[in-house]
Amino acid sequence: MTTPFEYALENQDKFLRELTEFLRIPSISAQPHHKEDVRKAAEWAAAHCLSLGMTRAEVMDTDGHPVVYAEWLGAPGKPTVIFYGHYDVQPAELKDGWHTEPFHPVIMDDKIFGRGTADDKGQVFIHLKAFESVMKTTGTFPVNIKILLEGEEEVGSIHLRPFIKSHSELLKGDVGLVSDSGMLAPGLPTIVYGLRGLVELEIYVTGPHHDLHSGAYGGTVDNPNHALSRIVASLHDAQGRIAVSGFADDVRVLSADEHASISHVPFTEEMWYVETGAPAIWGDPDFTLKERTGARPTIEVNGLFGGYTGDGSKTIIPAKATAKITCRLVPNQNPQKVFEAIQRHVAAHTPPTVHSEVSFKRGEPGLVVDPNDPAMQVAVEAYQHSFGKAPIFTLEGGSIPAVMMMRESLGIPVILMGFGLPDDNLHAPNEKFSLEQFRLGIQTAIEFYRLLPEHQK
Amino acid sequence: MTTPFEYALENQDKFLRELTEFLRIPSISAQPHHKEDVRKAAEWAAAHCLSLGMTRAEVMDTDGHPVVYAEWLGAPGKPTVIFYGHYDVQPAELKDGWHTEPFHPVIMDDKIFGRGTADDKGQVFIHLKAFESVMKTTGTFPVNIKILLEGEEEVGSIHLRPFIKSHSELLKGDVGLVSDSGMLAPGLPTIVYGLRGLVELEIYVTGPHHDLHSGAYGGTVDNPNHALSRIVASLHDAQGRIAVSGFADDVRVLSADEHASISHVPFTEEMWYVETGAPAIWGDPDFTLKERTGARPTIEVNGLFGGYTGDGSKTIIPAKATAKITCRLVPNQNPQKVFEAIQRHVAAHTPPTVHSEVSFKRGEPGLVVDPNDPAMQVAVEAYQHSFGKAPIFTLEGGSIPAVMMMRESLGIPVILMGFGLPDDNLHAPNEKFSLEQFRLGIQTAIEFYRLLPEHQK
Questions:
Q1: Is B278 in contact with A207 (Cβ distance < 8 A)?
Q2: Taking CB atoms and an 8 Å cutoff, what residues of chain B touch A306?
Q3: Whole-model pTM?
Q4: What ipTM goes with this model?
């Protein structure tokens, strides 16, 4: 008799053909002209869930991109898992430095390259294929499962909270499960027990009421590009510490245990140099490199623009300059308070020669999940089975608003079982997902679903 | 008998229909996709010169956009005027804030609105129409005239110098004449006797070898947007003085006469507020507002960009950030020395956590023309005739590389007879040219050509 995992190995080529179909839909949630593609990806995912034997699968509208909901509830009396993932992806264009077309996935060297391979379509597929493998070989599934796939994870999950709130009956369950994170290194299974929150904001600096001729007005008008640069420069001190008063007031102090645990994370300066390619490590000198990665808040200008950015030159003083900023928050920090601290800082650093405005875009607090929850222990055993070793518990640098919402609105523990690797190039050109991780992920998921009913008695 | 100026008034509608045709060709020299439009404008101008009775008109190739050369040499023994203008224009798009389509000129309120109306197609037309008006009414012209129209003024006149050098015989003449500048106020004729030079450069700051996920690497990687902001912020001190060591070493000290002359320029703080719309005057506190406008060197970041600048957000640390910069130079400053001073400054302000590079794009020194040259006195008389008062002599903030080249390579005095007004929105949305200025300009030009032979004996 074929075991579920044997089925998964035998069907890997079929799984990858299906995944490739899913990846070819450019479901870029940030770009309005891809709106129809986002819906197409949702429809594809819903149809695929039905084809696997789920008993219900729907594309459900929100005020933004739709949510996919699917379920199989054929195990009465057994626990119900709410699996969350997202089918939207980050923007990607060949000219950004991709070696292959971002939406024409290519398999090379036991890896699949393309936008969404690791973040998050490939990881969603781990669970869909675990479900398929168990169903095809045993005719049933050990737990009830509800699949919630979001189309706005990459743009802040703005419409997910009202969706979860208004569907709390539908989404009732015992354990939340998410595969949208990574392992610290190959061979080192990792459970993320803390996630940073996020505040997104934009700073606008305006000066003259329209672009001015730099020959006629230069030297008398404060250039918004210069003024914005002074503001951005003031956000950190010369050593790399955040210099915004009040920003870090509520930052949770790490316990001795956490300091020790972080110090054991197998991340070295050499790895940093290889992964980033940057000339030297930067950042708050009061914390170690490992602590700065995940355990500390950050302010990053993701986009900066003002004036003429086309070919050639245009001798102007621009009317406006913009900084697009996201801040990563650690648990205890309040997004609104952080935003207000920055707003005060910008106002204090705006000279009378220009105007500035700080616009709030979105905010989610950070989160810590209790590592001692029984469902966490099921995950530990599942990893032990597939990887041959117990997972390490870590704080993650990224933010998954949905995890916070699931915990808040549904009141259930959420397990972050991620199979990405540090060099997967998330949000960057040449995103990839290791097929070894894909196979191990399916094996871990099969085991997790198998073991869960025993622990949840 | 109709006088030349009466002819000009009677034919204003015809002149404006012709000018509109010329303005509708989007001859944007900075944008490669408008290359054919630039040539089309050159061909239109050459054909128009022939239609006015010029005896030769050609589109002549350079390594960049072509030059238009036209001539009428029917006055042997009389002086030869080399008239310079440009038929290329600055970029313009409706979305930049234009109230009308930039390349569909509209006449309203005795003004013509559209890209190129004042800078410089409309001003070139003043001289073509002065020529036509004299020819049509008298059958001849009082001086020989050679017309040189450039297609690269807005991108630094890179190929004009070799063209002028290799055509010094063709371009031989007695007086250079340019209408590509402005008057200080309506009713106040102005001759520009000094022009600032220009250095164009770009600063690139690079960090990681590709865009990184800000959740995974934020706090450990120096963000190129932040590092570039620190560099840009360091270019000026908090009061608005240029803080680049060596930048202003060779700046020519203004004479007491010049200080006095500048203090009489009818430019007030109130005018500054109306024209700029900016909240407060900025700049080097060691000089007056009037002195900063034209008599002092400047550094302006015309364009600033790094990272994600599209819709929504992308949580990245960008690999690269760019500042596009032009500096205005006063006479005596050497473009190469100025560039090197900035290069040293940027290197000194680049921390080990990023790389930086400063790229030289082009450079032209500034220039002073002698106000006592006899041809200058002809211009004074011409203005006296048309405006009823003598012109004021002023230093201009802008840069016209061709003027420098004409003086250098052809060794002739160059008269800058400009008819623009301060609110013409050069290089900005809603560029316009006053039709009153157009009429007075034609009258002044007719008179200048008529008087010139008497003074040049």
A1: yes
A2: 301, 303-305
A3: 0.75
A4: 0.75
